């Protein structure tokens, strides 16, 4: 029987989405797509596999993050919700930008523009917002949040959600969720969101670059904000999640077929020029149907609780904060090795996972470090646990 009070499968989806992000960023070192540093072995071999998750990975995270935010907002006033979200998201963001992220742009400018200064010299430039690291007219903006861009976006969307709840009343989440769940029944659960995502992609993608800079990222906002808000109102709608579980197999089939078409398009540049709208519809179809399949299979098979979920739910956010910098740093250590690319990639992944969880284990035992990695205060956890036991 599914637990409708605590949707454990959403926790598992968040965990698996962040694990997939770790794998994806490891892969970014080995593909031809632009990234901070590049392997001497970079090529196109694994790009079709990378494309398998590109359309939907972050979209799923925003949907699940919206559901978590909606559940939280149902338990507290809007002002308290904003304070909690600010502490959990902005403190790790600032710490990340000052301490965790800087090695990434440092090694990027060493590799791309031949910077010969020390890391200490670079940090002086980084903190002064130096803008002279340029190549082919493209200048690196400093300081930067790099892979942590997800944090200010979720925070900004949480502010929008709090403003809506404050304006429309606390019952708005339930009313909006019930209406949306009714609308997204049957075939409409597959077609309507995919059509909306396709419309956004067709209308905005050609005109707005994906910047991850928050203030000018209109295509991403038009994609991720609706998914976040949809998750926030649909989180408590059991009928909606049951519908996704029922549709999981056809959604998976459509997602895989769309992915195959995208791979064919990607390796036929002339097709992209002749059928750009078709390619964007295929991307959006893969994007939403993969989300439906992931949610449906997770609800079916991952609705139980246990020590693994409890541990990983706590660990996954610090691991997310750490992982990309560790990938970049370990890739530099392995750069002169004679390892075959596949073996090197596996070693890079193992080193990154081991170091990420090792640092998490240290941080969670130190009260001063916990908030810097987005971990709840130990005293608050103890009070909440005691309250549940008394109740």
From TrEMBL:
UniProt GO MF annotations: acyltransferase activity, transferring groups other than amino-acyl groups
Pfam families: Acyl_transf_3
Transmembrane segments: 12-31, 58-77, 89-107, 150-173, 185-204, 224-242, 249-268, 280-299, 311-334, 346-363
Record key words, sorted: Membrane, Transmembrane, Transmembrane helix
Claim: Transmembrane helix is one of the keywords in the record: yes
Domain Acyltransferase residues, every copy: 8-359
Domain of life, per lineage: Bacteria
InterPro entries in the record: Acyl_transf_3_dom, Glucan_succinyl_AcylTrfase
Protein name, per record: Acyltransferase 3 domain-containing protein
Species annotation: Pseudoduganella lutea
């Amino acid at each position: 029987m599914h637990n409708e009070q605590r949707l454990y499968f959403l926790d598992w989806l968040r965990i698996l989405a962040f694990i997939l992000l770790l794998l994806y960023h490891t892969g970014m070192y080995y593909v031809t797509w632009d990234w901070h540093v590049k392997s001497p072995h970079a090529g196109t071999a694994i790009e079709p596999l990378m494309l398998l998750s590109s359309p939907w990975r972050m979209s799923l995270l925003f949907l699940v993050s919206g559901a978590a935010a909606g559940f939280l907002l149902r338990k507290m006033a809007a002002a308290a919700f904003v304070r909690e979200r600010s502490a959990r998201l902005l403190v790790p963001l600032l710490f990340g930008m000052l301490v965790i992220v800087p090695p990434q742009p440092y090694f990027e400018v060493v590799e791309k523009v031949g910077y010969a200064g020390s890391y200490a010299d670079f940090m002086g430039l980084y903190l002064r917002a130096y803008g002279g690291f340029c190549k082919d007219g493209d200048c690196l903006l400093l300081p930067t949040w790099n892979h942590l861009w997800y944090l200010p976006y979720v925070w900004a969307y949480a502010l929008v959600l709090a403003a809506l709840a404050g304006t429309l009343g606390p019952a708005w989440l339930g009313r909006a969720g019930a209406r949306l769940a009714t609308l997204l029944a049957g075939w409409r659960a597959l077609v309507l969101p995919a059509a909306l995502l396709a419309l956004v992609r067709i209308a905005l993608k050609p005109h707005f670059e994906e910047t991850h800079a928050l203030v000018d990222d209109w295509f991403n906002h038009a994609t991720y904000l609706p998914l976040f808000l949809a998750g926030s109102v649909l989180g408590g709608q059991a009928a909606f999640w049951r519908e996704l579980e029922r549709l999981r197999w056809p959604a998976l089939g459509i997602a895989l077929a769309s992915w195959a078409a995208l791979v064919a398009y990607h390796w036929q540049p002339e097709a992209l020029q002749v059928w750009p709208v078709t390619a964007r519809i295929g991307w959006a179809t893969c994007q939403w149907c993969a989300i439906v399949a992931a949610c449906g299979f997770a609800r079916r098979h991952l609705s139980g609780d246990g020590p693994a979920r409890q541990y990983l739910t706590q660990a996954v956010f610090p691991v997310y904060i750490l992982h990309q910098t560790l990938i970049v740093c370990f890739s530099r250590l392995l750069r002169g090795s004679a390892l075959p690319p596949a073996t090197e990639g596996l070693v890079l992944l193992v080193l990154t996972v081991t170091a990420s969880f090792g640092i998490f284990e240290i941080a969670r035992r130190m009260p001063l470090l916990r908030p810097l990695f987005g971990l709840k205060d130990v005293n608050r956890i103890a009070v909440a646990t005691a309250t549940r036991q008394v109740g």
